[in-house]
Design goal:
The protein is mostly beta strands and about 180 residues long. It has one domain: Double-stranded beta-helix (4-Layer Sandwich). Helices cover about 10% and strands about 55% of the residues. The chain is elongated.
Length: about 180
């Protein structure tokens, strides 16, 4: 919160928006930290974080898989959870787990280098992204791990991108125009 107008009160919502002690322990054990503040009342609250771009995504009963460090705020009837991300987490150095947000409401996401870039994935056109640029994904998507490690990489002549995320199915993957 950088400013507010009106009658608004603030309190810690704990880990994952008051999802309870079990959720807090799960997030601490997995390294996927999501400490939230709850705002109640009437008025307008302004949010920012380190001059990052903010993008609002509407959820209508679907689930968003998001890097917790890119999550700024949740509004509406949304729940959070921590799920296994598989090898994507290892590649990006972000850990083996990711945060999911599901339900009805809005999610505000942060991006560096400019606004989020939303890339459509279809069965005919799978998508490969740099794990350090990945912010979120939603839809009927499956994720796999691509590696470009070869003898050229070992001698310093590779492309520089040893690990990539491959997304297949139908949905949208959002990336930031900068690497973490």
């Amino acid at each position: 919160m950088v400013a507010y107008e009106g009658q608004v009160t603030f309190k810690s919502a704990g880990f994952g928006g008051g999802a309870g002690v079990v959720a807090g322990l799960k997030q601490k054990a997995t390294g996927e930290s999501l400490s939230l503040m709850e705002c109640t009342g009437h008025g307008v609250v302004y949010f920012a974080h380190d001059a990052a771009e903010v993008t609002i995504i509407d959820l209508n009963g679907d689930t968003l898989q998001v890097e917790s460090e890119q999550l700024l705020l949740l509004a509406g009837n949304l729940t959070t959870n921590v799920t296994f991300a598989g090898v994507r987490g290892m590649a990006g150095g972000q850990g083996l787990f990711t945060t999911t947000v599901a339900g009805q409401g809005q999610v505000a996401l942060l991006s560096r280098g400019g606004p989020l870039i939303h890339l459509e994935v279809s069965p005919q056109y799978p998508l490969v992204v740099d794990p350090d640029a990945f912010v979120c994904a939603r839809g009927q998507l499956t994720q796999s791990f691509d590696t470009d490690v070869s003898w050229r990489t070992a001698v310093g002549q590779g492309s520089g991108e040893a690990f990539s995320l491959r997304w297949a199915g139908t949905g949208v993957v959002s990336i930031q125009p900068a690497e973490r």
